[in-house]
Amino acid sequence: MDNIRLRFPPSPTGKIHIGNMRTALFNWLVAEQKGGELVLRIEDTDQARSSKEFEEIIIREMQWLGLDADEGVGLGGEYGPYRQTERLDIYQKYGEKLLESGSAYKCYCTQAELEEMRKKAAENDKMPRYDGSCRNLSQKEKEAYEAEGRDYVLRFKMPEEERTIVVDDIIRGKVEFKSSVLDDFIIFKSDGMATYNFAVVIDDALMKISHVIRGEDHLSNTPKQIMLYEALSFELPEFAHLPLILDENKAKLKKRSKDSVYVGEFREQGYLPEALFNFMALLGWSSGDEEEILSKEEIVARFALEDVNKSGAVFDREKLNWMNAKYIRAAELPRIVELSIPFLIESDLIDKDYAEENRDWLAKVIDEARTGVDYLAQIPTEAELFLTDIQFEDQAAAAEEFSGEDVKLVFESLKEKLYAKKELTPERVAEIFKELKNELDVGGRTIYHPTRLAITGKGSGPEMTSVISIFGADEVAKRLDSALQLAE
RNA sequence: GCCCUCAUCGUCUAGGGGUCUAGGACACCAGGUUUUCAUCCUGGCGGCAGGGGUUCGAAUCCCCUUGAGGGUACCA
Fold this sequence. Notes:
Catalyzes the attachment of glutamate to tRNA(Glu) in a two-step reaction: glutamate is first activated by ATP to form Glu-AMP and then transferred to the acceptor end of tRNA(Glu). InterPro entries: aa-tRNA-synth_I_cd-bd, aa-tRNA-synth_I_codon-bd_sub2, aa-tRNA-synth_I_CS, aa_tRNA-synth_I_cd-bd_sf, Glu-tRNA-ligase_bac/mito, Glu/Gln-tRNA-synth, Glu/Gln-tRNA-synth_Ib_cat-dom, GluQ/Sye. Belongs to the class-I aminoacyl-tRNA synthetase family. Glutamate--tRNA ligase type 1 subfamily. Helix content is 49%, strand content 10%. It is mainly alpha-helical. It folds into four domains: 1-75 and 243-330, HUPs (Rossmann fold, 3-Layer(aba) Sandwich); 87-242, Rossmann fold, CATH 3.40.50; 332-384, Orthogonal Bundle (Helicase, Ruva Protein, domain 3), CATH 1.10.8; 395-487, Arc Repressor Mutant, subunit A, CATH 1.10.10. The strands form five sheets. It has a three-stranded parallel sheet with strand order 1-2-3. A three-stranded antiparallel sheet has the order 4-5-8. It is elongated and about 105 Å long. 34% of the residues are buried.
């Protein structure tokens, strides 16, 4: 195979989560790096659980992360259609081929019969496998079943003789399976739809996929698929099975996991796509460099499937937070402002009109608030003190604080100096505090604490120099005056 | 149960026989900066699952045990 062709084939049975998206990312990285194509195929053979809504979410979240496919659902391409339910005629063609060549047969066993078989196998400490009852049904028996109106499935006939099937995996090396552990697995369900194992082989072959990069949970399916490749005389692609992403219990990340797992949740909480991108790339892979904040370009340049780890990786939300915080602080301010405003509106701190009219001031507030957050949904908490009227947790205690010795002197001097400066940058405010300390015979605490309380209503928060710079002289003077009034 | 995979600090990892008294990052702890919290800077704590081999020499190679995960569906 000369062309590098990758595929990401999610099944739209739920919102896309980090585990799947990381698979998409690694496929995308290889395609990007080697100038190959990435195909987005939708595996909706489970017709009961698949839905269009989930398909749309998959596409939207991939776009958000910048993982654009070159071909596939929503994009078209010469190997379509790209939705498996729309490829049924193709699967049927190959199913018939196998039926004719004797590599497949109709099986009329009922679910209850199969259940019985599994139970027996478990009792005998054997891997549950289909016993092949319907392998050599006589014409008469078949007709009898048909007459009964029994549904049938199509099973692939495993070769009789014992042999070893080797999966040559880029990440794991050669993995061997004895054919005796494989049974006559189903390739067509009784609802007439192809099963995953069958459809995936047909599609990968027909779509000329060169590298199948997927989660380790598919490793055990691979020998079955290899048998199908052989039976259909298809050329084998390269395989690479990625380590799984684990939840806090070290189990495969899934819908039931406690922590957030959906890509959408991270987007909604104000994680930046480039931060998630960077973080996911480091789950199971490392550049070998000690620097971990890597741009998309750096990751594309350095990525190699050969360097992917074999063991599962726990999704560490704390580290993602740290990384996201770094990206938030490094990002262009206008973009952060844009992304933060919806959160402020949502928190009822501001409304749309306010956001438009006070954009510059809001930018200052958000610029300050961003230094204290891990993700943008936390912006309102940090910005609140700038956007609401002052509120004391304990008004009586505050009043007492303000009535302290020298407080009035400090406040009045501060006001005077604030008005003496033209533009209140944090640096100038810092100078003012220095002067205050030198000129007034009071301790540092007497200057800072009451001041902070009077202006923000709280005992801690952003640096006073920033707070005063953002509020400006008028607002600060007003708050200092009210504090003094409270003291009386 | 059976099959497959995996195994370095709590977590993500570097390491592919000597340069390892095992390096980095997150988290944690302490100190410094900010007379606050956070940011930031500095330092610290902390690991090769266990047992056998191979070798002059194993985190690195082999075997066993243990542990973890995945698969075992008319889910994908």
